[in-house]
Amino acid sequence: AAAVAAGMVPLALGSDAAGSLRTPAAACGVFGLMPDFGRVPHGNDRPDAFINTHPFSFLGPITRSVEDAALMLDVMAGPDDRDPFTRPAREESYRTALRDPVEDLRVAYSPDLGVCPLVDDVREAVDGLVDELRGTVATVDRVDPDLPGWEAAHEPLATLLQARYRGIYDAFREDQGVDILDRREEVTDEVVSRVEKSLELSAGDVRRAERRRTTVYDAVQDLFADYDLLVSATLSVPAFDIDSPPTAIDGESVHPVHGFTLTWPFNLTGNPTASVPAGRVDGLPVGLQVTGRRGGDDTVVAAGAACERLAPWDDAYPVDPR
After folding, report:
1. 212, 216, 307 from 156: Cα distances, Å
2. For residues 217 and 269, is the Cβ–Cβ distance under 8 A?
3. Cα–Cα distance measured from residue 124 to residue 281, given in angstroms and rounded to the nearest whole number
4. pLDDT of 321 above 60
5. CB atoms < 10 A from the CB of 21, how many?
6. CA dihedral 307, 312, 316, 321 (to 10 degrees)
């Protein structure tokens, strides 16, 4: 994302199991698109071809413009029989979605998804872009999805990530002869922590997490019974030093990895989502997260293009020295 923003590369590929595509896109002021689950195949992802549902993990483009993302997605997307979750090929180019009308779209606006504290300046930035959007779409209503509290909603994600890391740990040991815990100084503390916790998981823990995940899934899908899009902040804070993630927001303690992100709920549900540049706070980028119905990534592209027309961000980038 930083390389795209700096003009070092025109396009980049991101992967996302809890926000790893959208979070850097928001922090760097670029467009990051997480298309429908299975739209971009993981291909020959072995030895575990089924790992990418624990939680839903996506591949997608990171670009300076929505048009570049649509072009890149046209190349990346398509069926692959080596991926058990691959989606059929689309009949139309994603570039046609750039011009799709948005006048009839019904938008639910939940700046913090009802679960995450937001810095006032970030709220003002996303409010501003949503106000611009309000005059373009059919309706914008202030609505929160009926999610359980942060802890209850996040717990299934944490458990499923631990289960995912158990698979990675076992694969390294069995296929590479490498025990990550014997070489912990070579990996991050977060990886070590997830692996250690994974060794304590039971099958019952994973199934209970999937039941709680279903509660999050239903809350999001219930909202989409009445709306075409759900928009929120991508991060609850502006970009920060990579070595100093926020541990508190307005005096409220937050989880040091996911407590300032609003990305991870959609890795539990599989909805297509994008982070759209929404301005800056003290020179630091802020992102607006645009989420669509399952199977509606073309609507997310259309909405992202509408936001770009309303509040262009290309002048925020360094001039290309070439």
Report:
1. 6, 9, 32
2. yes
3. 9
4. no
5. 28
6. 120
